[in-house]
Amino acid sequence: MTGFDPVIFDLDGTVVDTVELIRESFRHASRVVLGAQLPDDVLMAGVGRPLMTQMEALDADRAQELYDTYREHNHRVHDELIASFEGMEAALGRLRAAQRRLAIVTSKSAQTTDMAFRAVGLRDYFQTVVTATDTDAHKPSPEPILLALERLGATAQRAVYVGDAPVDVTAGRAAGVATIAVTWGAFAVAALAAAGPGFVVATPAALADLCLHGPDAPANEGSGRGDGGVRRGGDPTVGGPTSGGAAGDDPTAAEDTGRQGSGP
Predict the structure, then answer these.
(1) Are residues 220 and 90 in the same domain?
(2) Fewer beta carbons below 10 Å: N end or C end of the chain?
(3) pLDDT in tens, 205-224
């Protein structure tokens, strides 16, 4: 088998488009609780980590109030602002048709994960879903990814973690799996590249090509790879060289390379 198996995904900003939902919820909470409109780069800096951790970084003394205000607004506008990424369902369908094992590892709670899947579907593509409710430690700890591997009966050797945040890359490297950063989520390409992913991917179709065939196989028509759909993480055209050496440059070497990554 070429490519990667299993393929483990982050949820927000990777499988489902919650970027605007998250941004607007942060803006609302900061205005109401702090009386200030903080810059978006400050508000979104911790995306990928549990929500309370993000609120503590904004204001440790008012973290609970920020958390409660965010959640109330987020739940109220959730179905209005959440969306599907174009091409994602087709990519998931190709992976499942090729007998790839698929999983979700997210820092969302079980409740909000269920809300997302009810709004956009896609739950049936995944054999297991690991949420913040399932583990004591969360990304950038490798614990959630390791739990997904355990549930799938898989090892890290040919596994890959796919996400849109630097914390996703850090968690994947710490778990000893290959890493793919996607550019359609919440973070700029330069920030993703600096985290040291094995690959940076621009479209869901290109992601499917990479997971099915590895980095050197010809792309399917419409994948976007000829337009920068897939680049190795160290390619300077994606925002500069990555730091620390990227796990996943060779799928067969992902376990040994990633094992050098540090934990949280």
Answers:
(1) yes
(2) N
(3) 999 999 999 987 565 544 44
